[in-house]
What we know:
Elements: H1 2-23, E1 24-27, E2 31-37, E3 40-45, E4 48-51, E5 57-64, E6 68-77, E7 83-94, H2 99-107, H3 112-131, H4 136-139, H5 143-161, E8 163-175, H6 177-256, H7 262-279, H8 291-311
Helix pairs in contact: 3-5
Amino acid sequence: MSEGIGFFGVTIIVLVIAIVGGAITTVQQGTVSVITMFGKYRRVMYPGLNFKIPFLEIVFRRISIQNQSIELQFQAITNDQANVNFKAMLLYSVIDQTEETIKSVAFKFIDFGSLMQTLNRTVEGSVRGFVATKRQNEILALRRDITEAVKENLDADLKSWGYHLIDLQLNDITFDETIMQSMAQVVASSNLRAAAENEAQALLIRKTKAAEADGLSIKISAEAEKIASKLRGEGIALFREEVAKGMGKAAEEMKTAGLDTSFILFSMWTDAIKHFAENGKGNVIFLDGSNEGLDSTMKQMMALSRIEQSKR
């Protein structure tokens, strides 16, 4: 009898411990637990120590209220039938910890995999709809526009599921290998054309500057020649003026001395012949050395002298 009472007491103690242990539960920080009873939603348990009715209240789902991220990969086709491969990172979280939001997150989808599949297809559909209206050469420059278009469509859907879109990034946009090769060829040819245009411009500038320099040099040379000619003319004029003054003075002195002024012309004639002989450097000079030739030369020089005097 005592053994039966002892076994019953142990059983009672075990049941009490089981009931008390089942009534106490802990919810981790950053999560909440959705409680159901008899398959129907009952309440939400928040982080910390919580109590529930043993064997009746069941933890239906633990929901993280922290930021979550998933990586998406999909393909889209442009308006000119080019395949574009996308890699995207989606950052989202539960909107808040209110009961209605938690209920929406817990019961909208049958499991977490269904939510991920829906997110992937939603983003993929938005991107495909946007890319289908653009050409392949526009896609890389429209990364921000694609992101904004997807955010606008996706954020409304997430809010209806109890989530909030924090950020969406298109980390990688690539084309098929054939298209990448053709784009590389287009870039290379564009660079070659730009290089040729730059080289032509440089050549044009060099030739223009050279022509300007030649023109400026010719102009400077012409100005210098003009000035030199003017100076030579002035020098010759001054030389003649001084010669005339010297001859006039010499003629006056010869008159004072009672000599014929024609002797000056004769002296100049002989000095000229002497100069020809000393500086001729082998050149042959023919002079009429007869008396008649001398007389003719003297008459011509005297005639020129009279003409100069009459002009003065």
